[in-house]
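quick one, 192 residues, struct below
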Amino acid sequence: MASTQAMVVVVFAVVAVAFAPPALAADIIVGGENGWGLGIDYDKWVDGNDFIVGDTLVFKYAMGKHTVVEATAENFAACSKDSSLGSWSSGEDRVPLGTAGPRWFFCGVGDHCAQQGMKLNITVLPIVRLSASGPSSSSSSPSSSPATRTPWRRDRGGARPPAWGSPPRCLCSRLLGTAHIDPRRLPRPRHE
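---
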């Protein structure tokens, strides 16, 4: 009797956690431990991370040495601050990722963008909720206090899925900090 009740509690807890992705939003420090600065290969850094609706980018840098400018694709390519979508200069700037799609950022100081490559292009992935009828996207608002997570990295197994058209993500991987689980790579049941 006690073991049956314990099993019910465990199953309920797993199901409850699986259906609560907004609470799993994460703060992602741009550039990792190096922060936002010169001499960092941001294309390589982006390849090692997933950015999901509800996450927050955190740009950490010495105030006065750099800035953060959010731009359109055209202005990003030209490192132009004209008609910027946003700009920050506090040294610890927090940019919420509220919608899925591409986002472009660069440093607006001197030649940091144009000559030194201090620019960041990411694609924010939608949240995928699992339900009895299958996966569906959600645009729920993120939790007010996001968890800090270690982002998915290529060295944790498998290739990074394409930004659009990728298979549904297992929310368990967010909880455990493990690699993205691609359903196409799961073993197939044997029929005897």
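Strands lie at 27-29, 51-52, 56-60, 68-71, 86-88, 92-96, 101-106, 119-125, 127-129, 136-138.
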